């Protein structure tokens, strides 16, 4: 089938390449000529495991093309995926200007039936706004070409996006038109083989499902982070509590890992946007507000622990940081806990020596050259001349370090584990003080 994707960001690229992989003819459109040039010359603007290889093989096979030509895009695909950004406005609500600009472009160039498929995470009611926008343009141009707007939210996890798209646990299709539903069912058939994962619903429920899923997951994390602070106060061990509650299948083990807060481009933005949507309709979403507030506070927990340990004397200290990305297997540092920590350390007059397996260039891009940020090429080098080690991101390569090597390279033998991924008893056996989340330090 012929598919057009507007937006070659994270969701657009993954959607485009996966649809091409199963044999569709995909044309990706972006207004940024630099991005399109890069993609056309074999580059990839983001890091995602497996993406690069799949883009190159599908380009070579001629099933995946990139262009800035919106008209060609509208002519090409029966399916017009909208996968452009919805950055937060100053008040946290989603800014729809890019989504509506694509809707206008499609309306201007459309000469036969088209299905507009919303993949961007958009507030409830956006599909109706997209449809209104198309109708307005058509009225202005004196045309009436048939179209449908479908909500088909994406549930990809960064770092596992290809796998999530190829083997989804659900495919949500929101449309009131049975014919459109059948066309989407056919498009998704290669991803929907073993049992039916396609869930058909009305447009607004599909739009809300996306926010509900992310808000629920963020709530689980904030709940555990809140509990971790209570565990510390009462002298309990949050890791024992986690295992104890996770064994109840109604609660489950997933997404109940306490840590130094959630980041990324989705949870923080989506929780805020849902709360703003509710408020705009006269409903105060108290729980969502608390989820956000708890997360905000949890991102400062590592700084507070360091500050307590050093008796408020962080000025002139050097702190080693392992992990800069908001989670493993990505170079994405949007809303990452590492940023809150580094910025607080700088404010207190400390220096940072940091290592991340893939996010070093991103850190350079964000912070530029500065004397209080030293980016090093391997984990152990971060420790040279450092007064403490802080683990911020749960990369698997940080999970079983050589504690003796850490002990001999650090100036002061102390580790702060912001994700509870290290074996504290081994750290202590090597002569290190081990400070973690939601339990007493091991000295
Ligand atoms: C999230 C959702 O998990 C996806 O289902 C969704 O499609 C995506 O947002 C989106 O809306 O596009 P993502 O932001 O890639 O995916 O990352 P997650 O793996 O969910 O991790 C989010 C954050 O939560 C990370 O900072 C992670 O370290 C933290 N986390 C996760 C915890 O602190 N504890 C946990 O138990 C799990």
From TrEMBL:
Annotated catalytic residues: 266 (nucleophile)
Pathway: Nucleotide-sugar biosynthesis; UDP-alpha-D-glucuronate biosynthesis; UDP-alpha-D-glucuronate from UDP-alpha-D-glucose: step 1/1
SUPFAM superfamilies in UniProt: 6-phosphogluconate dehydrogenase C-terminal domain-like, NAD(P)-binding Rossmann-fold domains, UDP-glucose/GDP-mannose dehydrogenase C-terminal domain
Known EC number: 1.1.1.22
Record keywords, A-Z: NAD, Oxidoreductase
Gene Ontology terms for molecular function: NAD binding; UDP-glucose 6-dehydrogenase activity
Catalytic reaction equation(s): UDP-alpha-D-glucose + 2 NAD(+) + H2O = UDP-alpha-D-glucuronate + 2 NADH + 3 H(+)
Function in brief: Catalyzes the conversion of UDP-glucose into UDP-glucuronate, one of the precursors of teichuronic acid.
Keyword Protein transport part of the UniProt annotation: no
Family of the protein in this entry: Belongs to the UDP-glucose/GDP-mannose dehydrogenase family.
Gene3D superfamilies: Cytochrome c1, transmembrane anchor, C-terminal, NAD(P)-binding Rossmann-like Domain
Domain called UDP-glucose/GDP-mannose dehydrogenase C-terminal: residue spans: 320-424
Residues the entry annotates as binding NAD(+): 30, 35, 86, 121, 158, 269, 334
Top EC group: oxidoreductase
Domain of life: Bacteria
Keyword Repeat set for record: no
Entry protein name: UDP-glucose 6-dehydrogenase
Positions bound to substrate: 155-158, 210, 255-259, 263, 327
One Pfam family, short name: UDPG_MGDP_dh_N
């Amino acid at each position: 089938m012929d598919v057009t994707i507007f937006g070659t960001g994270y969701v657009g690229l993954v959607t485009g390449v996966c649809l091409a992989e199963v044999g569709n003819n995909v044309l990706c459109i972006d207004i940024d000529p630099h991005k399109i040039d890069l993609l056309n010359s074999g580059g990839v603007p983001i890091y995602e495991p497996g993406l690069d290889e799949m883009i190159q093989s599908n380009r070579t096979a001629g099933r995946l093309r990139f262009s800035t030509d919106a008209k060609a895009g509208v002519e090409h695909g029966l399916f017009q995926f909208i996968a452009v950004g919805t950055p937060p406005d100053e008040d946290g609500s989603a800014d729809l200007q890019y989504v509506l600009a694509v809707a206008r472009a499609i309306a201007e160039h459309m000469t036969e039936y088209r299905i507009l498929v919303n993949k961007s995470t958009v507030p409830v009611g956006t599909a109706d706004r997209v449809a209104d926008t198309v109708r307005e343009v058509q009225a202005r141009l004196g045309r009436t070409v048939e179209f449908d707007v479908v909500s088909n939210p994406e549930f990809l996890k960064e770092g596992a996006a290809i796998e999530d798209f190829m083997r989804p646990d659900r495919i949500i299709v929101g449309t009131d038109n049975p014919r459109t539903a059948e066309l989407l069912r056919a498009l998704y058939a290669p991803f929907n083989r073993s049992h039916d994962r396609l869930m058909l619903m009305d447009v607004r429920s599909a739009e809300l499902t996306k926010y509900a899923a992310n808000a629920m997951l963020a709530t689980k994390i904030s709940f555990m982070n809140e509990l971790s602070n209570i565990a510390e106060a009462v002298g309990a061990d949050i890791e024992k509590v986690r295992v104890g509650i996770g064994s109840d299948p109604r609660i489950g083990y997933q997404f109940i890992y306490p840590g130094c807060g959630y980041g990324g481009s989705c949870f923080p933005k989506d929780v805020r946007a849902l709360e703003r949507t509710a408020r705009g309709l006269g409903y105060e979403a108290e729980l969502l507000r608390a989820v956000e507030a708890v997360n905000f506070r949890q991102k400062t927990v590592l700084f507070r622990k360091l500050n307590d340990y050093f008796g408020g004397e962080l000025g002139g200290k050097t702190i080693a940081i392992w992990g800069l990305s908001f989670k493993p297997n990505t170079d994405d540092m949007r809303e990452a806990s590492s940023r809150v920590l580094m910025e607080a350390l700088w404010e207190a007059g400390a220096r940072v020596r940091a290592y991340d397996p893939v996010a070093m260039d991103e850190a350079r891009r964000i912070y530029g050259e500065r004397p209080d940020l030293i980016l090093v090429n391997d984990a152990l080098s971060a420790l040279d001349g450092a007064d403490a080690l802080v683990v911020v991101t749960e990369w698997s390569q940080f999970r079983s370090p050589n504690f003796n090597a850490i002990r001999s390279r650090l100036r002061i033998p102390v580790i702060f584990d912001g994700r509870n991924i290290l074996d504290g008893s081994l750290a202590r056996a090597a002569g290190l003080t081990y400070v973690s989340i939601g339990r007493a330090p091991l000295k």
